[in-house]
């Protein structure tokens, strides 16, 4: 068995965040020669070249190096979890939890979590990363996140998950649109209307999929990479949007202009928001506590939002 140390793993795990050896050394507060020697010693232990170091081309990990860095990060995370798990046996959970959250609903779910968590678990600190599935899944695989809150939609295999709240696709319309007078909207009624597409993964693919399942194709007016831009354009009457239902979501745009939110009938893309983490990784007690708190808080928030939306249609 290779006789490497946690310090060697820590040094190598930092390399994917840097393009040059000098940058990595400065971040790690080492001399460049000391870091280079540590890498060489590690390569001798594992019997493979882990990175290419060229002054003209900077620092580049080999495929074996990428794999080693990912596994090193996971081992370090497990080691950190072991220390804090032992501390947790005294009755108080302490330490960091690295939480990823899908960008389109981050502003609807994170405030409720971050507001109540310090009272429930004062020893836990949260480090938040916002992104799309394309950002969050690689970060999970690399061991950079404990878990991520995402849509259970077009997810690849290899992830454990826990349901947080149910969600489904809704039509967001200008208040003066004829379809806004209806209690529900059929996708067939929307197919020829101008769609402001929320252009992000997996939302774009899901939108095309729900139309295709009905033998329809949307008429896309424009693609917008940010949810606030989508809602702003709908508020100004430029088109409609299809968005997943979210808790704590007022029916107004960022500019304060009203929008009309209507359920899709027959329902389209009913799914869930879930907490996910790689199957081969075990959630630390801290991460389990944060995920459980998110389920408790957001499930209630989602039910209250659904009740308020139903009351508004009566």
From TrEMBL:
Any matching Pfam family: HTH_1
Keywords annotated in UniProt: DNA-binding, Transcription, Transcription regulation
Residue span(s) of domain HTH lysR-type: 4-62
InterPro entries in UniProt: LysR_HTH_N (IPR000847), LysR_subst-bd (IPR005119), WH-like_DNA-bd_sf (IPR036388), WH_DNA-bd_sf (IPR036390)
Classification via Gene3D superfamilies: Periplasmic binding protein-like II (3.40.190.10), Winged helix-like DNA-binding domain superfamily/Winged helix DNA-binding domain (1.10.10.10)
UniProt family annotation: Belongs to the LysR transcriptional regulatory family.
Protein's recorded name: LysR family transcriptional regulator
């Amino acid at each position: 068995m290779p006789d490497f140390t946690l310090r060697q793993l820590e040094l190598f795990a930092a390399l994917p965040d840097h393009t040059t050896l000098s940058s990595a050394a400065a971040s790690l507060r080492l001399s460049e020669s000391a870091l280079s020697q540590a890498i060489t010693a590690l390569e001798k232990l594992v019997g493979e070249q882990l990175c290419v170091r060229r002054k003209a081309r900077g620092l580049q990990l080999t495929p074996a190096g990428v794999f080693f860095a990912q596994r090193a990060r996971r081992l370090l995370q497990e080691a950190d979890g072991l220390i804090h798990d032992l501390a947790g046996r005294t009755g108080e959970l302490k330490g960091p939890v690295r939480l990823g959250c899908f960008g389109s609903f981050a502003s609807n779910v994170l405030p409720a979590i971050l507001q109540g968590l310090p009272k429930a678990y004062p020893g836990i600190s949260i480090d938040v990363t916002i992104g799309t599935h394309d950002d969050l899944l690689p970060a999970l695989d690399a061991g950079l996140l404990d878990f991520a809150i995402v849509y259970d939609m077009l997810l690849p295999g290899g992830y454990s998950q826990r349901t947080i709240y149910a969600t489904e696709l809704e039509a967001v319309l200008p208040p003066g649109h004829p379809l806004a007078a209806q209690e529900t909207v059929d996708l067939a009624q929307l197919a020829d209307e101008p769609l402001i597409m929320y252009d992000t993964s997996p939302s774009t693919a899901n939108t095309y999929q729900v139309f295709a399942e009905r033998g329809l194709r949307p008429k896309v007016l424009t693609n917008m990479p940010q949810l606030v831009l989508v809602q702003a354009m709908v508020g100004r009457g430029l088109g409609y949007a299809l968005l997943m239902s979210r808790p704590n979501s007022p029916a107004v745009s960022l500019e304060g202009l009203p929008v009309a939110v209507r359920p899709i009938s027959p329902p389209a893309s009913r799914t869930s928001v879930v907490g996910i983490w790689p199957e081969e990784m075990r959630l630390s007690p801290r991460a389990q506590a944060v995920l459980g708190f998110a389920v408790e808080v957001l499930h209630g928030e989602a039910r209250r939002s659904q009740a308020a939306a139903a009351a508004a249609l009566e």
